[in-house]
Write a structure and sequence with these properties.
heterodimer; A: two-stranded antiparallel ribbon; about 5% strand; B: alpha+beta; Penicillin-binding protein 2a (Domain 2); Beta-lactamase; six-stranded mixed beta sheet; 20 strands
Chain lengths: ~400, ~625
């Protein structure tokens, strides 16, 4: 092979090649989706860019830069550092137990004070991506035969169980569910024998009473209220009742942009964060809601295409891992605000106001784009390529 | 590499399986959206409107009540209250201190406001004080720049400018009672709403009240009003014109003075009640503002019963004023002629009972006119004995006794006209002949209200038309009502009217000659009455005590009925003074003054008036 200028090595692509192979379609979809979010945040503030829309745009711009940077990193390098990232995320989760601030009665984030730069870090969000990396790396190193062995279950299960236990202690039911669901889905995609999933499902059912007893009172209350929101219309059931009223009253075409009565008269709680989908559906109607869902489906489909096209197991698992995490956000949030599942506090990806989820997602999409850019790049198996 | 391809194939299979699962999940979500936004959209749209749209009631202005000349008797007065909106002031406590420096504000008021402002949302106005005087309002207005968040709110409340004077006619308004709350009118739920509790305020409640307006406002989840969506103004209640002439009413009340009793003056042609005084009275304004329980107890326990409208609810033996009825019955039946005389020795014996005449030494031979003029009891014992109680009762009922007049006032009572059947049914004993004699002089079981006495006088004065009293001239301007006739022969009536003329105007023995009207053309005819409150014993007769020596509540009631002017009767009047002594000394002078004033006012206030037509009345 001729050593082309600008190449970093035989298995490496040049910067121009990488930019040419970049997932510009994904970036366009993300821009459209986030654009709808900006519009809704503008409406939530009563037709003002402040306090939410402008801040969200800046975050998205930063996130986009992050996405492009991550996409350009060599995939083998990411593979190499997967366990390190996981370990770091785990350390942060443990740290949040000590130093975490109190938010909504739960310890969820760490205040980071660097000179001239101050931000809140939510380790559970970092973990969502770190877990995908770790599991993808673990199964990448196994062949089909090895994957079907029961011994291969031990490490991924541990990888999932450790952060789950820590997140549950915070307590953050929504994130715990997402970590478990994401991890298990990834194991399924990696090729773990189906019987384990059947067994796991039975085990989960059997342990439900135990899990119930471990839940905090407010979590139990949420679940109970979910079954019968009318029992407590002004208390815990208020949010979901008002959300359904807002959604339903939106009808097919909605009440018009900036015209949502439920949202603008404060009947709808947290309209700029967890319940922003409700506001969108109230103002833009079912048509607007379907438009957003269609955008989400396109992003998911894009992710599937990237995954199926990837030549490495690591790339495939990493890409679909990101897609699964993303779709879990979407499904859980929409199911929650439409009253299909209890309120668990999961934001609507790319739309809800909030920094951590936005950064997590953009990092995730950076990894997805990375897999796309490096779709034909082989990723080495086994040891000797870096730490661990 | 073979393993790699297998692994990739398996991954693809499972990825497609996962994609299928996701499609199912999305379908579920879309189905849910379809259910909420299409199927149930109308329900949720309604719920969203329920959330944001609030109905506020706008209370109507209560209709005014005026006298026949348009003088306001019950009106609406602007009231002022001071409210504080805590979100507009930096420190509620400081602002309250500054308010207290300007107007009277007690420590407990301040504590209450501080508690309310902390308890409620900070945009809710809290009432600091109600019923501000005009000078207090101006003091606040001048200092408003230093009083952020302070507002003066205007309201309307019922006001009776004449105070006690027309209390028994207008009645009063008060807070809505539990019993009224069963009615459907949403106004009744409004805090501070007032309804008529008595008098015409109660009888004409439906007309006076008006109907509520509504204001639809959009509110947010905290109840703050964002904007007004729709407004329908309240409909003011209808105004009510009384037949009362407040000038005459005031004159009658002053003439009656401190006595307990009542004066009724009515137009004997059309039934308009020109004055209706019941004394003592109460201040209806006090009821509107809310009476203290001490003040209420004082009113209840007053022996002169200020809360009772004595003109329609006071029932008294009519005494000698009833003798005209007995005379009418006898004349109409042809049992006596005016010329027939009865010898009065001062007493009358029936069986083994002796009945006394008020004049112990008797009147000698008296005919009917003389008997009325001198109010000879023995003559009427004799005549009543001949006529019989049931015939007397029949005549009494024709003249309006024993039944309510249905005047538009609350609490009217029917009085009592005894008959043989009545006594057997109610008391369960047979009628005694002696009881007929008592009825013959208006005593015994016989009871009448001053209003009934005025109606009787009116029917004598108008020549036997069955006039009925009324106190409200409807808002639509009712015509002169057409009354039935009592079917009394004019020559029969003329005899009794001659007697009533003689009572007042015959210097020789007329019991009310001292109370005659001298003015040419204004003379009155009438009849005195003195009703016993307790049975007179022989000892009393011997003692012959002066009025002052008798305890107040044992003194006789003084009565007088009259009409005037004598030759073209227009006004009927009844005066009852509780425990006033004698009709001729106590009641007749009051009637004289009031009837003279009524005629004088007619010539001054309505100079071109013909009988039966009044200013503002369609003829």
């Amino acid at each position: 092979m001729v050593a082309w200028s600008g190449r970093f090595g035989p298995d490496q692509l040049s910067l121009t090649e990488k930019l040419g192979a970049m997932s510009w379609g994904l970036v366009a979809l993300l821009l459209l989706t986030a654009g709808m979010g900006f519009a809704m945040l503008y409406s939530a503030a009563g037709g003002e860019l402040r306090p939410w829309a402008l801040a969200q745009m800046i975050r998205f711009a930063l996130g986009l830069a992050l996405l492009l940077s991550i996409a350009l990193i060599d995939i083998s390098r990411i593979h190499r550092f997967s366990y390190v990232i996981y370990a770091l995320a785990l350390v942060l989760l443990i740290a949040v137990e000590d130093k975490g601030s109190i938010g909504m009665g739960a310890q969820r984030w760490i205040e980071i004070n660097l000179p001239g730069f101050r931000f809140q870090l939510q380790p559970s969000e970092v973990m969502k991506i770190a877990l995908v990396l770790a599991i993808a790396r673990y199964f990448h190193c196994l062949n089909g035969e090895q994957t079907r062995k029961w011994t291969s279950l031990i490490i991924p299960c541990l990888l999932i169980a450790l952060p789950t236990a820590l997140v549950m202690r915070q307590p953050d039911l929504g994130t715990a569910v997402m970590i478990v669901a994401g991890g298990v889905t990834l194991m399924f995609l990696a090729g773990v024998a189906l019987r384990w999933f059947v067994g796991g499902a039975l085990l989960t059912l059997g342990s439900l009473p135990v899990a119930w007893s471990l839940l905090h009172d407010y979590q139990k209350q949420r679940v109970l209220t979910f079954w019968d929101p009318a029992s407590d219309p002004l208390g815990a059931g208020y949010h979901i009742t008002q959300s359904k009223i807002a959604l339903g009253s939106g009808g097919l075409f909605g009440k018009g942009f900036l015209e949502g009565t439920q949202s603008h008269l404060s009947f709808l709680p947290e309209k700029q964060t967890d319940f922003i989908f409700t506001m969108l559906a109230e103002e833009l109607g079912m048509v607007g809601a379907l438009l957003l869902i269609a955008l989400y489906l396109l992003i998911i489909a894009y992710g599937f295409a990237v995954a199926l096209r990837s030549s490495s197991q690591f790339g495939r698992l990493l890409a679909l891992g990101v897609v699964v995490t993303f779709s879990l956000y979407v499904f859980i949030n929409i199911a929650m605000v439409t009253g299909l599942i209890p309120v668990v506090g999961v934001p609507l990806p790319l739309i809800s106001y909030g920094g951590t989820a936005m950064i997590t997602l953009m990092v995730g999409f950076g990894l997805l784009a990375n897999v796309h850019v490096h779709r034909d790049m082989p990723v080495g198996r086994g040891a000797g390529q870096g730490p661990f | 590499m073979r393993g790699d391809i297998d692994q990739r194939k398996q991954f693809t299979r499972r990825a497609l399986f996962l994609a299928g699962g996701q499609v199912l999940l999305v379908s579920g979500l879309v189905g849910r959206l379809y259910y909420l936004q299409i199927v149930e959209a109308d329900t949720y749209r309604m719920l969203a409107d329920d959330n944001r749209i609030n109905m506020r009631l706008l209370p109507p202005l209560r209709g005014r009540i005026t006298d026949r000349f348009g003088e306001g008797v019950a009106v609406n007065r602007q009231t002022y209250q001071l409210v504080l909106v805590s979100e507009q002031t930096e420190s509620v406590a400081d602002t309250l201190d500054r308010i207290a420096a300007l107007i009277d504000l007690s420590e407990s008021d301040i504590r209450w406001v501080l508690k309310e402002t902390s308890r409620r949302s900070d945009f809710v106005p809290v009432t600091v004080r109600e019923g501000l005087s005009w000078s207090e309002v101006t003091r606040i207005e001048v200092n408003l720049p230093e009083l952020p968040g302070v507002l003066i709110e205007e309201g309307q409340s019922r006001f009776y400018p004449y105070g006690e004077l027309a209390a028994h006619v207008t009645g009063y308004v008060g807070a809505v009672s539990e019993a009224e709350l069963t009615a459907a009118d949403p106004l009744l739920e409004l805090p501070g709403f007032r309804t008529g509790k008595n008098g015409v305020e109660k009888i004409f409640e439906a007309e006076l009240r008006g109907s509520a307006g509504t204001r639809q406002v959009e509110v947010n989840a905290f109840g703050r009003v964002i904007r007004e969506i729709a407004r329908q103004d309240a409909a003011t209640g209808e105004d009510l014109t009384l037949t009362i002439d407040m000038g005459l009413q005031g004159f009658a009340a002053r003439t009656l003075g401190e006595e307990a009793g009542s004066v009724v003056v009515m137009d004997l042609l059309n039934g308009d009640v020109l004055a209706l005084v019941s004394s003592p009275a109460f201040d209806p304004n006090a009821f509107n503002q809310g009476l203290t329980s001490e003040a209420w107890q004082a009113l209840l326990n007053d022996p002169k019963a200020p809360l009772i409208n004595k003109a329609i609810a006071g029932q008294y033996p009519p005494g000698s004023t009833f003798k005209m009825i007995v005379a009418m019955a006898a004349l109409e039946m042809g049992l006596v002629t005016p010329e027939d005389t009865v010898y009065c020795p001062g007493h009358y014996t029936l069986g083994n009972h002796t009945f006394h005449c008020w004049r112990r030494w008797g009147h000698g031979d008296v005919g009917m006119v003389d008997a009325l003029k001198q109010s000879c009891d023995v003559y009427f014992y004799d005549v009543a004995h001949q006529v019989g109680v049931d015939n007397i009762a029949e005549m009494a009922e024709r003249f309006g006794f024993g039944a309510v007049t249905d005047i538009e006032l609350t609490g009217e009572r029917a009085g009592l006209v005894p008959t043989k059947a009545w006594k057997e049914a109610v008391i369960g004993e047979a009628w005694q002949g002696g009881e007929t004699l008592n009825v013959g002089i208006g005593q015994g079981y016989m009871l009448a209200t001053p209003m009934q006495l005025a109606v009787m006088a009116a029917r004598f004065g108008n020549g036997g038309s069955k006039v009925m009293p009324r106190i409200a001239r409807s808002t639509s301007g009712r015509d002169v009502p057409i009354f039935e006739t009592l079917n009394i022969a004019p020559e029969v009536l003329a005899v009794v009217r001659e007697g009533m003329d003689a009572v007042v105007n015959d210097p020789v023995g007329g019991t009310a000659y001292a109370a005659r009207i001298d003015d040419e053309g204004m003379e009155m005819a009438g009849k005195t009455g003195t009703a016993q409150v307790r049975r007179i014993t022989t000892a009393d007769r011997e003692a012959n005590r002066e009025l002052e020596d008798i305890p107040w509540n044992e003194r006789d009631h003084a009565l007088f009925v009259a009409y005037a002017p004598l030759h073209a009767p227009r006004y009927a009047c009844a005066v009852v003074i509780e425990h006033g002594g004698s009709g001729s000394a106590a009641a007749a002078p009051v009637a004289r003054d009031v009837l003279r004033e009524a005629q004088r006012r007619q010539s001054v206030r309505w100079p071109h008036d013909d009988a039966g037509s009044f200013p503002g009345q369609e003829v």
